[in-house]
Amino acid sequence: MFGSPLALAQAHETRDKLMASNAELAEDGAIQIVTIKTTGDKILSQPLADIGGKGLFTKEIDEALINGDIDIAVHSMKDVPTYIPEMTILPCNLPREDVRDAFISMSAASLADLPAGSIIGTASLRRKSQILHRYPSLSVEENFRGNVQTRLRKLNEGVVKATLLALAGT
């Protein structure tokens, strides 16, 4: 089964909660997790805004739901676009995890410790704006995309000096 560890963890948590709340769903084989690779997962070389925005992480999953290939879809709310496709609803949300960001660097303990010109990797416009507002001497690589493991590998390879990730996903 291929899929980002974070997406799979969310799917498993959803499955476990469904199984705990309904005895029929707890039976062997009652719930199957289907991994769907989305356009947002496949195209990592361009900023999301250039290729269609946040909906690229939900499009194929929503299509599978609408086509009846799956019965429910699990999304990270950060990936859900403002307007959802017709024939879909957002009936529930799991409790929100920690909302803080984690600073990760191989050479510094904080953004303040980074030398001028250091490149920070993020695909988040919010994080970019916050970083540059507080630390205008830093630079931001705004096409720093991929799952957590991909971004940590890029950091380890020296593509950037630091990154910020959602604490809940690390």
Automatic annotation (TrEMBL):
What's the top EC group for this one? transferase
Q: Report the record's Gene Ontology biological process terms.
A: heme biosynthetic process
Pathway connected to this protein: Porphyrin-containing compound metabolism; protoporphyrin-IX biosynthesis; coproporphyrinogen-III from 5-aminolevulinate: step 2/4
Please verify whether the record's keywords include Phosphoprotein: no
Assigned GO CC terms? cytoplasm
Q: What is its EC number?
A: 2.5.1.61
Tell me where the signal peptide lies: none
The cross-references to InterPro entries, in alphabetical order and at most eight, read: HemC (IPR000860), Porphobilin_deaminase_N (IPR022417)
GO molecular function per UniProt: hydroxymethylbilane synthase activity
Keywords, alphabetical: Porphyrin biosynthesis, Transferase
Q: Which cofactor does it need?
A: dipyrromethane
Family designation: Belongs to the HMBS family.
Mind telling me what this protein is named?
hydroxymethylbilane synthase
What is the species of this protein?
Salix purpurea (Purple osier willow)
